[in-house]
Design a protein that fits this description.
8-stranded parallel barrel; 31% strand; 10-stranded antiparallel sheet
Length: 739
Amino acid sequence: MIKFDNNRFHLKNSFYSYVLEVSKGAHLLHRYWGKPLKEFRDSAPLQMLDRGFSGQLRAFENERTYSLDTLPQEYPAQGHTDFRIPAYRVELENGTNITELNYKAHRIFDGKPNLQGLPQSFGGGQTLEIELEDICNNFKVFLNYTVFEDTPILARSARFVNSGGKSIKIRNATSAAIDFNDNNFDIINLYGAHTAERTIHRHKIPRGIFEVSSTRGASSHQHSPFIALARPDATEFVGEVYAASLVYSGSFAAKVEAEQFGTTRFVIGLNPDTFTWKLEPGEEFQTPEVILNYSCAGLNGMSQGFQKFYQEHLIRSKFKNQVRPILVNNWEATYFDFNEEKIVALAECAKDLGLELVVLDDGWFGKRNDDNSSLGDWFVNKEKLPNEIKGLAEEVHKRGLKFGLWVEPEMVNEDSELFRAHPDWILHVPDYQPSFGRHQLILDLSRSEVRDYVLDAMRKVFSSAPIDYVKWDMNRHMTEAFSAGRPADRQMETQHRYMLGLYDIMEKLVTEFPDILFESCSGGGGRFDAGMLYYMPQIWTSDDSDAVCRLSIQSGTGLAFPVVTQGAHVSVVPNHQVGRMTTFQMRNFVAYAGTYGFELDITKFTEDEKAEVRDYVKLYKEIRSTIQFGKFTRLLTGDKDGNEYAWQFEDDGRLIVLYFKVLAKPAEPIRILKFADLNPDKVYTLKKYFPPKKMSFDGGKQVINFEEKSFYGDELMFEGISVEKIDTDFAAYLWCFEK
């Protein structure tokens, strides 16, 4: 998998080759990343040209064609004859940031090293570690590359070591940098906002520097720590795509520079605007891991590479390969206005409908009746729950259901016993009034005593009752990232130390409570990243539960993350976020494409509606293993006007296809839907077909003209199927084939 010969490293599996070269015995260059090669023999050698204003290091003063400003470097420095975006920046004791990392040594070994204190992939086949050294200033960087045999993934990270006698400050530490020898790319990124996360944005690479980033102390709703470079002719099914996903949940930056001579540099890692790390002699600093993904089969190939990799090499939970329970969450049903009687009634109805998990959301603790108080006071409000969590959980279990609970351990309200006892435990700047978000302040998890409190409080809650599921929320972003007691020259470490503290808490809790299914949340999808998935195998995708909005949100999320990681629920109409009146069938079928559940007051269903819900629940139980763990393919992505989406799910025994049309239009052509990537020699038998209902929330009846039919895979791919035209807005279709 990894070979070193003639000063070149060739990393290879059946999906890609990745080639590095040591030039002049010193400089580590990037030479190739793409389709697997039998052997790299340098058929397109670097052309060394004398470029004006591209300087030379002193050792190469008379070689004006040899400049770091034009060479394709693998981990470039700043300010030392290379003027492009750097991979790192280290400030020395004398104030300079001029450094020069040269190749010193390497080792190749089986397996994958542990990244202490960080989420990370596991199960790698072989690792290359390259040692770079600045001999003038006695510091080193170790670059790690792990090749996995069964995926198109290359995992990368960097480790800084201060081997000298003086302290240094790391001002910038990316996890990876890659130089491409052309700029013929489109950039694909996922932008958004709260309730509008991960919108797919594709645009031509601009001249200059393009950046997606977060300074919010979280990976954020606004920009996902993901970016892809796609060839302009790349589609969902063909063409080259190079992508990166950062295994980190805090502030990050990904930058792409199309530079003066038509080449491209890409870097991704910690955000230098919110990060500095003081490294004393003998100390080390480890960057987060980045997952690099090469696809020659278009965007779906890229997505399937990420999804398979995260499912098999990142998610560790015992639930990773278990179908997820169908839940009802009381939040949009009751908000803060609930008591034990209401939740038990919800459970009674859930049992009748065939649901499997009842989740008690915000408001069960302290004096919590609104957003203003009690975060941090993790004891039960006995006015609402006189028999405490244990009594309620046992009532839910008596009905054959699982019980879940909401917590938000990272936050505190000013009106709380915790804040009154420890006002210095929050992130705040002396002499300034702290700012608020949702009336919340942020506990300083970079401090051990604060982490100890959070751990103790959560241990007590999780062990106080038979709890099967925990929703871990985080509902504001980081401001005033100042930590009391930390010296001034280490204050810029606070954001990253917070994340390390959070990871430490999560690692301990998920290890101590392995039978709890944890779901991460941050106002919905504000921390939907690979770092969180290492600890919690599913994430609430968005606080926007409207089915139409969710088409875009779930499509964008599926660009990098498995379907089974995406929380998706049916909610009431008019929808609480956008007021839209969508059909009940569309709401159910969109929620099918994730961890299906309900976010409404199910006790208010009529008897006819309850019968309908039972049918949807029964159907989902039959097909959920295929949807949650089958191969996911986007057939239509709403590209032109956001009006049509189609998703395909396939495993060894079944094929499920969902098609959605938001608005009906006059005089439209018949939609022929072509499936993708099927076995052309397999016979697929249509067992169930659900065309849309007309205005089901007004009692519309579904008409199914069903006749069992069989087709070879080639016909379904190349001829396709006709979508029955039904003139209604918010149309949703489902086909179920068995092989």
